[in-house]
Specification:
alpha/beta; eleven-stranded mixed β-sheet; two-stranded antiparallel sheet; 14 helices; 39% helix
């Protein structure tokens, strides 16, 4: 049955992949539909900042020829994907959102890019990100801000904001990103798509300058939970160069996700132990949480002890940012946004004992989470403490009447979970009365991605919030 170009651009990735392998659609027409969509819509959102049209069409032609010759093709055969601006792509301008790298062209792909391309995906270009991926609002001095597809006066979130906005706007069917303090979950929440922060090591990173770092991870985004599972099956899996890489089969995530949730023990923490949360967010999430009870789950208010999570996250983040960017800041004073420079400077104040203390407390936090998940199967919470805010702000200065002292504090609902190491995802949960998307954060035990995907899929199928499209 013929489909329009717009229908192609909003087909779920799993269905699109099936039609491509069956020869019902060609890679050429799929890529061309997305390139046309980018030309028409991207100027309104600024999600994709570099477009590699000529290369994409050449790769699409080669993909069609491989299929015509009867050659084996990968699970993402012919699927167009744009890569996050903080992830290196060989031969393609990659700025990290910094004017210091405005003309930078890497020689090699990062591992996540390499795996997506090896699975048959076709590169469309690069998606916008904040400077060096720092902050949950996507803007930088090289490309400017990314706007929310649902309301262009609002933020798309960050740091994978370009990826999320491109998904919502129909510019790509799948996206990859990264998450230290919420950078896969927050933009998914703001843009009414799905974002998964995996357990450390599930999606190994390479190059990886610090061998044991599990605070920052890479992961998948999509418009459906099943599509996120498909991409996770491609980018997850062992790599001998990364010492925390999990040696577990990734194909399981591409399988059917239908599951009976009856009897599942579910905890609901509307403020994650006392965080300020905008009442508009709570109003959207409370009925969404009731859906789990309707699916047969035993839902009750409960929250793990997260008191040390803030201290753990801030210390380890400061240490990592100082380790990675201090030399660059010293060489180019005044050339980074002040909030990022402040983070790096904070990292310089940390002693070896401070870092050791943070890691010791992180182990205590992880032990507490393991005990919590002995009583519960899932934890539900807000992704973000606020709905999407004006695109001209750097960050919300107050939340529910409480002042935010820096550009991190308003995202504690996401970054405290990062400190636990548990996998977590944002799933569309509805809209505020003035049309701003809100995501539900679903958290599972360490390495519990498959159960997490199944629960999120059940919620998605029961609610269908993610099927609401932006209007252009």
């Amino acid at each position: 049955m013929p489909v329009s170009a717009e229908e192609i651009c909003y087909l779920p990735a799993r269905r699109l992949a099936h039609r491509l392998r069956a020869g019902e659609l060609s890679a050429r027409e799929v890529v061309q539909a997305h390139l046309d969509r980018i030309e028409q819509v991207n100027p309104q959102v600024n999600a994709i900042v570099t477009v590699t049209a000529e290369r994409a069409l050449a790769e699409a032609a080669a993909a069609d020829e491989r299929l015509a010759r009867g050659e084996a093709v990968g699970p993402l055969h012919g699927i167009p994907v744009a890569h996050k601006e903080t992830h290196d792509v060989a031969g393609v301008r990659t700025t990290y959102g910094s004017p210091l790298f405005a003309d930078h062209v890497p020689d090699t792909d990062t591992l996540v890019v390499e795996r997506i391309r090896s699975a048959g995906a076709i590169m469309l270009g690069k998606t916008n990100a904040p400077e060096f991926g720092a902050g949950s609002h996507t803007f930088n001095p090289v490309f400017g801000p990314t706007r929310n597809p649902y309301r262009r006066d609002l933020s798309a979130g960050g740091s994978s904001g370009g990826a999320a906005a491109a998904l919502a706007a129909g510019l790509q069917p799948l996206a990859e990103g990264s998450d230290m303090g919420g950078s896969l979950r927050n933009p998914a929440s703001f843009c009414n798509v799905v974002g998964l922060r995996p357990s450390p090591g599930r999606v190994p990173a390479w190059p990886a300058p610090l061998p044991w770092d599990g605070l920052g991870v890479q992961g998948p985004m999509g418009r459906t939970v099943a599509d996120v599972g498909l991409l996770l099956s491609v980018i997850a899996g062992y790599d001998e160069r990364n010492p925390i890489a999990l040696d577990q089969p990734a194909e399981q995530f591409a399988g059917p996700l239908d599951a009976d949730l009856a009897g599942l023990r579910v905890a609901w923490a509307p403020d994650l132990g006392g965080l300020p949360v905008d009442p508009a967010v709570t109003a959207v999430l409370e009925p969404a949480v009731e859906v789990f009870a309707g699916l047969g789950c035993r839902v009750e208010p409960a929250c793990p002890d997260l008191k040390v999570a803030d201290e753990v996250f801030r210390a380890l983040r400061g240490w990592l940012f100082h380790a990675g960017l201090s030399d660059l800041l010293d060489a180019h004073p005044g050339r980074m946004k002040q909030t990022l420079a402040d983070n790096i400077a904070y990292g310089a104040t940390l002693s070896g004992a401070d870092v050791a203390t943070a890691q010791t407390r992180q182990m205590q936090l992880m032990t507490g989470m393991r005990e919590f998940f002995g009583r519960y199967d899932l934890l539900l919470a807000p992704v973000s403490q606020v709905p999407p805010f004006p695109v001209g702000w750097e960050y919300p200065e107050t939340v529910a009447g409480q002042p935010m002292h820096d550009y991190l504090e308003w995202m504690r609902s996401a970054y405290t979970i990062s400190a636990t190491g548990c996998p977590a995802m944002s799933v569309p949960a509805g809209f505020t009365t003035d049309g701003r998307p809100v995501g539900l954060q679903i958290i599972a035990p360490l390495r519990g991605e498959l159960g997490l995907l199944r629960a999120a899929h059940a919620f998605e199928q029961a609610t269908r919030y993610g099927e609401r499209r932006p209007v252009f």
